[in-house]
Structure formats: structure tokens, C-alpha cells
Give the backbone structure.
Amino acid sequence: MLRVKSNFNINAFACDIDEMITNAQTDIVERLKKVARAQVKMAKDINPPTGYYDDTGDLSSSKGAMVFVDGKEVYNYFTLTDQGENGIKEGRKLARQVGADTTGIALVIVAGMYYARYVEGKNKDVISGTSDYLVDMLREELKK
């Protein structure tokens, strides 16, 4: 019987694999951050007539994104519009509720004010119009 003796350290090999996985995960998260920023900017740039007039800034400020890894927030992108402090608070709250139950790497994009769906229902584009570009943007960014 021929015996073969390994000429490598299995623990070092396992560490190398873990490092490769971590590097890949970090790279994906960085790419998702880029997509998140672009999507939020696009959503905030929607103006009438397809968009809406935002008197308080809350609805615009509630538009944002977060990236989660196994339910843990690793990136948070919300920007203040006008006087919309409450919008940022509500947007973050909704994104955290959605992201908390995710596994793997997740990108969560929201319009967090409770009336966002109502405004969309009036044929005003709050955030849904940007979703048309999201898949293509993700595909392009992750292909690199």
C-alpha cells in the first residue's frame, strides 16, 4: 500500500480559506455600498411631475440604504433633506427591521415614512422607479 504524507499545514490552509472568504465578502459589501449610494441619490433626484412635492423633507430623508451581513448592520446611508430629521429616523428604523432577519449579505433600500406607499399609490414615484435600474446596476457592479 502506498502512503502519501501531506506536505502542508491544514490549519494554515483553513486560515487561508477563511481569509479568502473574508476578502470576497468585504469586496461584495464595498460594491453594494456603491450601488446603495447611487440608488438613494437617484431616488432623491425624482422630481415632479412623476415625483412629489416634499413639504417637510421627511419623505426624501427617509430614503436610504443599509447593508447587512447575517443580520448585522455594516453600512448605513441616509442623508438629510431640508428639515427631515424624522425621515432619517424612520428610514433607519424600517431598514433595520427588514435587515435584522437577513442571512448572508443583504442590501436594504427603503423609503421609510409610513405614508410612502400612499404617495406611490397616487402614481407619484417615491422610490419604485429606481428599482428598474437596481438589478442592472447590481449585475454590472458584481460582474467587475
Observations:
- DSSP finds five helices and three strands in the chain.
- The beta strands are 63-69, 72-78, 105-111.
